[in-house]
Amino acid sequence: MTPDRVRGRLWAVVPAAGSGSRFGGEVPKQYLAVDGQPLLAHTLQALLAHPNLEGAVVVLAEGDAHWAGWSTFAGKPLLTCVGGRARADSVLAGLAALPDSVRMDDFVLVHDAARPNLRAADLDQLLERGRNDPVGAILASPVRDTLKRAGDDGGIDCTEPRERLWRALTPQLFRRLQLARALEAAREAGVDVTDESMAMERQGLRPLLVEGAEDNFKITTPADLARFEFVLSQR
Ligand code: CTP
Ligand code: MG
Asked: How many of the other CB atoms lie within 10 Å of CB of 59?
């Protein structure tokens, strides 16, 4: 074992190849300036500030004109690659672009570029507990709202029990090769997995839920961006 492995260092894949269609606007949301920095920089900062993070692969859209061209961030190496049509395609590309020093059975973090408000303590917990799980783990938050099932007419058919329902967040922590195989299997089956865990679950695996802060939200709409701006102003 190398000294790095003894310290438990690992790499992250950061999918940033989306077009932000729900957010709208000319500039993809991951590049919108918040407090003088692109959103992506806030996300990379939250991730790479962790001492166990060795580097990251940022997955970019084909022909991305906004990428700043960083080859390091927070003193750590950044690699890039080109993503695909769906998020899962982008993550697969990112896994393939990891350096050879990341072994096939090493754990890798996947974290949305659009999720800038990750807490160090949550990342700690995920790494601590996830690396002791045979499969891996995800940050998640219990559903707090009452859930309604809508009918075709927009009326409420019923109330769904929210017990044991969780909202899946990122980062998600899985082994490099196992995750790649699971994402490839979903793609071959034509299943559009919306997170890494879903691909693993399809393989009959049971990732661990690690409860994280609810404010690790994803920037999907302008209201989310306003929320993040507020969070920053309160730090
Ligand atoms: N993502 C990606 N490749 C894709 C689609 C999404 O790398 N083909 C990334 C996004 O850049 C984002 C993360 O996956 O960091 C989560 O996706 P989402 O919030 O859905 O972002 P977009 O797909 O860009 O937004 P929308 O769905 O509104 O178009
Ligand atoms: Mg999307």
From this structure: 29
Residues of the domain holding 223: 3-148+162-233
157 domain-assigned: no
Which of 59, 142, 138 has its CA nearest to residue 97? 59
Q: How many beta carbons lie within 10 A of that of residue 68, not counting itself?
A: 10
CA of 87 to the centre of ligand 2 (A): 7
**In-domain check, residue 44:** yes
Residue minimizing CA distance to atom 15 of ligand 1: 113
In the chain, the number of structural domains is 1
Q: Spell out the per-residue pLDDT of the chain, length 235, in tens.
A: 444 444 468 999 999 999 999 999 999 999 999 999 999 999 999 999 999 999 999 999 999 999 999 999 999 999 999 999 999 999 999 999 999 999 999 999 999 999 999 999 999 999 999 999 999 999 999 999 999 999 999 999 999 999 999 999 999 999 999 999 999 999 999 999 999 999 999 999 999 999 999 999 999 999 999 999 999 999 9
| Cα 206 to Cα 225: distance, rounded to the nearest angstrom | 33
Pocket test for ligand 1, best of 31, 47, 112 (most atoms within 8 A of CB): 112
Question: Could you tell me if 220 and 228 are in contact, meaning their C-beta atoms sit under 8 angstroms apart?
Answer: no
Write down the pTM of the prediction.
0.96
In a domain, 154, yes or no: no
* CA 191 – ligand 2 centroid, Å: 15
CATH value at residue 81: 3.90.550.10
Q: Which residues pair with 141 in a beta bridge?
A: 167
